[in-house]
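Quick entry between incubations.
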Amino acid sequence: GQQVMQIPQYQHVQEGEDFTTYCNSSTTLSNIQWYKQRPGGHPVFLIQLVKSGEVKKQKRLTFQFGEAKKNSSLHITATQTTDVGTYFCAGPYGGTSYGKLTFGQGTILTVHP
Amino acid sequence: DAGVIQSPRHEVTEMGQEVTLRCKPISGHDYLFWYRQTMMRGLELLIYFNNNVPIDDSGMPEDRFSAKMPNASFSTLKIQPSEPRDSAVYFCASTPRATGLSMNTEAFFGQGTRLTVV
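Done. Structure below.
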């Protein structure tokens, strides 16, 4: 079954509003990655988090890795229409710290101008 | 580097026919992944290779699916016979292994193959 759950599945926001997606793992992760997929496109790597409690920022995007390394979040401040797409978290499953890169179901973000 | 290259970009085939999807990973990458994406099931990992060796194929739906990696620069995913429920976008991705860190690094995805089985 699915080992990493993402919520919400869908999010509709007005341009300028904030957006957050959450990723929860059934097991402790050595690291977690985030990807963005534009409509009709392919997943593109955004960032990787490794340390417990780690927080990283990329312009309007803030990524957090939980203290227990079982959950993560992506927060977008003041969304823009260019933020539209599906955001995925991904982690290595299969008993090792690398290899079996498994994706969450993704959160589909729609931004209304 | 041109990135991960998949072919064909689109494939329409009739039920029962054999379908072969192709992937050329980025040179020097140790890992190659095959994913299937549908609205219902999201992005599913089908199989992955490390240094051309299949490591985990537990995501392969059934015996109709098979994957090979005869060398470091080429992999195929074959469906025989194909069924309408196989219709999906199939992605290939490759990633290097971060030296000394024992963890995955950034996965680079191909453009995908959109498969339609009628």
